């Protein structure tokens, strides 16, 4: 059966401009978009019409880098840079998830918040704890949101209450891969070495083996902070660059890898990321919160890299992709005041919106657009009062800049209406 969602439809099939249809229809069959049309096509005259006239219908947001257990930490410790911030705040927070009851409580708040802000698909780090990670996966399965989630691997350079042996880490990962297949069939597992400094060579090799055997995706951190990059160089003096450490140990599978931050990439690393079809998760807000740097996003896009926008909560303080889109645009403008970058064109709104919808969504398949064959992942955004007569594009712009979760009336994932989770 075909369902016709009626409203002001706007999306970005390409980064250069919005495709907008005022008072139009998105036709959906079996959870997938059939087409977008200005009027109801004759052959679909008997389609069920879901009338959201006067509302925007936009693709759902996709966040390719977020730390679920760090949600309670959001907004703390930003007078520190990455490495002291991890020591002083992050590891202490994550250690508390050894208790599955803590995980149950705080992961519910996390999942509910992502639902509220319209982040329908995401790639999340959990903690190294198996039971708690499984709880997060089960909550996501129940919620109707469709993320991929990884148990974090860390067997060195970590505090005594947040570390595992190499064997525990590998055994735990494999166990969770197997258990989640049946317990949470709609939630993908993603292999998640925290970052190079916290994983031994033996652990990386073992994880690389699991990636091959189960054909799994990988997520990690890359070139975020200059002290971190220098640390990796000291740990692996025989490997020319940070990215090549992941490559060496089988942790950069083709078209299945997400690398967060990527601020300090060398030319060699850019070539490798392009060759492997890596998704760069650009976390502009986090990069300013932790004084990490500003990614030269224009150059990465021009080079042909796939760049998505991500929140990195709690390196970033705000999970809402509205804020993260704005931050990415603002950071790209700030970049042009840096010597040597004066002529880099800042991100436009359609580009940044594309990065937060279709570019990130492509990690999950045909997600993040309303082109034919795409999964119908959508947000219905309420019209608010306006003094000027605004176009659909301008209304979206206003929602991105000053709107919030209260403006989101409905969320659909693959054609299914997703209600607020955990209400029963
Ligand atoms: N690098 C290693 N761990 C982390 C983390 O938790 N957050 C961020 N932003 N970077 C990291
Ligand atoms: Fe991160």
Draw up the topology in text.
Blueprint: E1 2-14, E2 17-29, E3 32-37, E4 48-59, E5 61-67, H1 82-95, H2 100-117, E6 119-125, H3 130-143, E7 148-150, E8 152-153, H4 166-183, E9 188-189, E10 192-193, H5 201-214, E11 218-222, H6 226-235, H7 242-248, E12 257-261, H8 267-275, E13 279-282, H9 284-289, H10 297-303, E14 306-309, H11 321-335, H12 349-361, E15 378-381, H13 392-402, E16 408-413, E17 416-417
Parallel strand pairs: 1-4, 5-6, 6-7, 7-9, 8-10, 11-12, 12-13, 13-14
Antiparallel strand pairs: 1-2, 2-3, 4-15, 15-16, 16-17
This protein binds guanine and fe (iii) ion (FE).
Fe (iii) ion (FE) binds next to β5.
Structure description:
This protein has 424 residues and is an alpha/beta fold. The chain folds into two domains: 2-59 and 368-417, Urease, subunit C, domain 1, CATH 2.30.40; 61-364, TIM Barrel, CATH 3.20.20. Helices cover 37% and strands 23% of the residues. It is built from 13 helices and 17 strands. It has helices at residues 82-95, 100-117, 130-143, 166-183, 201-214, 226-235, 242-248, 267-275, 284-289, 297-303, 321-335, 349-361, 392-402; strands spanning 2-14, 17-29, 32-37, 48-59, 61-67, 119-125, 148-150, 152-153, 188-189, 192-193, 218-222, 257-261, 279-282, 306-309, 378-381, 408-413, 416-417. The strands form four sheets. A seven-stranded mixed β-sheet has the order 3-2-1-4-15-16-17. β16 and β17 (416-417) form a beta hairpin. α3 (130-143) runs parallel beside α4 (166-183), α4 runs parallel beside α5 and α11 packs across α13. The longest helix is centred in the first third of the chain and has 18 residues, at 100-117. The two termini are 29 Å apart. It binds guanine (GUN) and fe (iii) ion. Residues 67, 82, 86, 90, 194-195, 221, 224, 286, 312, 315 line the site of guanine (GUN).
């Amino acid at each position: 059966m075909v369902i016709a969602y009626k409203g002001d439809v706007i999306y970005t099939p390409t980064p250069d401009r919005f495709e907008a249809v005022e008072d139009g229809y998105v036709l959906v069959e079996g959870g997938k978009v059939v087409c977008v049309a200005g009027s109801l096509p004759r052959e679909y005259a008997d389609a069920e019409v879901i009338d959201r006239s006067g509302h925007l219908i936009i693709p759902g947001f996709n966040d390719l880098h977020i730390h679920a257990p760090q949600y309670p930490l959001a907004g703390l410790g930003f007078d520190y840079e990455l490495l002291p911030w991890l020591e002083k705040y992050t590891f202490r927070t994550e250690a508390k998830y050894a208790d599955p009851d803590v995980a149950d409580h705080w992961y519910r708040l996390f999942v509910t918040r992502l639902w509220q802000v319209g982040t329908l698909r995401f790639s999340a780090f959990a903690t190294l704890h198996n039971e708690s990670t499984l709880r997060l996966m089960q909550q996501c399965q129940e919620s109707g949101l469709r993320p991929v989630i990884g148990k974090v691997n860390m067997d060195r350079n970590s505090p005594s209450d947040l570390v595992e042996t190499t064997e525990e880490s590998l055994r735990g990962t494999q166990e969770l891969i197997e258990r989640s297949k049946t317990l949470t069939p709609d939630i993908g597992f993603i292999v998640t070495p925290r970052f190079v400094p916290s994983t031994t060579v033996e652990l990386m090799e073992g994880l690389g083996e699991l990636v091959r055997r189960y054909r799994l995706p990988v997520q990690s951190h890359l070139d975020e902070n200059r002290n971190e990059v220098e640390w990796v160089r000291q740990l692996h003096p025989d490997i020319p660059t940070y990215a090549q450490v992941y490559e060496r140990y089988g942790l950069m599978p083709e078209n299945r890898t997400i690398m967060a931050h990527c601020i300090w990439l060398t030319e060699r690393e850019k070539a490798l990321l392009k060759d492997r079809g890596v998704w760069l998760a650009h976390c502009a807000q986090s990069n300013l919160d932790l004084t990490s740097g500003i990614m030269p996003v224009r150059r990465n896009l021009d080079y042909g890299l796939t760049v998505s926008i991500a929140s990195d909560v709690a390196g970033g303080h705000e999970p809402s992709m509205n804020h993260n889109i704005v931050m990415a645009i603002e950071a790209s403008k700030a970049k042009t005041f840096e010597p040597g970058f004066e002529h880099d064109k800042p991100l436009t709104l359609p580009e940044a919106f594309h990065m937060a919808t279709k570019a990130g969504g492509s990690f999950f398949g045909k997600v993040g657009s309303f082109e034919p064959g795409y999964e119908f992942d959508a947000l219905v955004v309420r019209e608010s009062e306006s003094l000027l007569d605004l176009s659909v594009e301008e209304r979206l712009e206003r929602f991105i800049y000053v709107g919030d979760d209260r403006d989101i009336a409905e969320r659909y994932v693959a054609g299914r209406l997703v209600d607020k989770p955990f209400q029963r």
